[in-house]
Specification:
291 residues; alpha/beta; Phenylalanine Hydroxylase; five-stranded mixed β-sheet; 12 helices; globular; binds 7,8-dihydrobiopterin; binds fe (iii) ion
């Protein structure tokens, strides 16, 4: 009979999604009609306050993506409506999932240009922080840049690399790349530093912090340096890596055979995020810095 996937575990956290309803690829139906007025209200509150930060703190491609996909504060987006606009532009589509899914399925979805978005939205007392990705993080943070052709190709290449990394037992190294780019990446622009990472853009506190605070280190992106660097999941970042363009990201994810890199780095301890190395191209030296 059909095997029911069980909820993946992440530390001791019990995941709240309805995993018993998921298919073997972990997708579910969005069931948009079942969202309550209160849930739409949470979307509206979160969207409004994060949207107001974008012009000052985010890469311009983020607001452009929201506009081109018709995403606004009115209500929780219908995935099908957004897909109708997204698919023709970059070939990507959103698939609904119960929440965090096992990494092999996650990589397979990205390699197939499917972006998994959690169907549930956080509760009123969680507006500022929650440990699991919910609909607001996944949608507001990740979906706008899927309308950018270069970024979208990077994401696909990342998914394909994930499948190879599993064979090398190097998923933890690739996860660092995802963390420091897709989740917490900064972009150097003519107008100054701007955020493009979803973990930044979905956080009211970390959006101004990532761009303006004197605390964290900011270092020019280098693929091997990123793969060697530990990250913290329970606080604002102490280190951000700065790309010059989405093309740079795409080249790093696409033209490189990660095999030799994985072998060279191995699985020794990572560099702490507070540490700056002599070889780093430092953009800003943070007050957390260790010489
Ligand atoms: N599942 N829904 C979801 N969203 C993620 O961002 C995610 C995931 N499963 C695994 C995973 N991320 C990570 O293992 C990768 O980023 C490396
Ligand atoms: Fe995310």
């Amino acid at each position: 009979m059909g095997r029911t996937p069980s909820a993946p575990t992440r530390g001791r956290l019990a995941l709240r999604g309805a995993y018993d309803q998921a298919g073997s690829d972990y997708t579910v139906e969005q069931r948009w009609d079942e969202y309550s007025a209160a849930e739409h209200g949470i979307w509206r509150t979160l969207f409004t306050r994060q949207r107001a930060l974008l012009d000052r703190y985010a890469a311009s491609e983020v607001a452009a993506g929201l506009a081109s996909l018709g995403i606004d504060s009115d209500a929780i987006p219908r995935f099908s409506a957004v897909n109708a606009l997204l698919k023709p532009v970059t070939g990507w589509r959103i698939v609904a999932v119960p929440g965090l899914i096992p990494e092999d399925q996650f990589f397979a979805h990205l390699a197939a240009c499917n972006f998994p978005v959690s169907v549930w939205i956080r509760e009123p007392h969680e507006l500022d922080y929650l440990a699991e990705p919910d609909l607001f993080h996944d949608f507001f943070g990740h979906v706008p840049l899927l309308a950018n052709p270069v970024f979208a190709r990077f994401m696909q290449a990342y998914g394909a690399a994930g499948q190879k990394a599993r064979a090398h037992n190097a998923v933890h190294l690739l996860a660092r790349v995802y963390w420091y780019t897709v989740e917490f990446g900064l972009l150097q622009t003519g107008a100054g530093l701007r955020a493009y990472g979803a973990g930044i853009l979905s956080s009211k506190g970390e959006t101004p912090y990532a761009v303006d605070s004197a605390e964290p280190n900011r270092v020019a992106f280098d693929l091997e340096r990123v793969m060697r660097t530990d990250y913290r999941i329970d606080s604002f970042q102490r280190m951000y890596f700065v790309i010059e363009s989405f093309e740079q990201l795409f080249r790093a994810g696409y033209d490189t055979d990660f095999g030799p890199l994985y072998d060279r780095i191995g699985d020794g301890p990572g560099i702490a995020p507070e540490v700056l190395l002599a070889a780093d191209r430092v953009v800003t030296r943070g007050s957390v810095g260790v010489a």
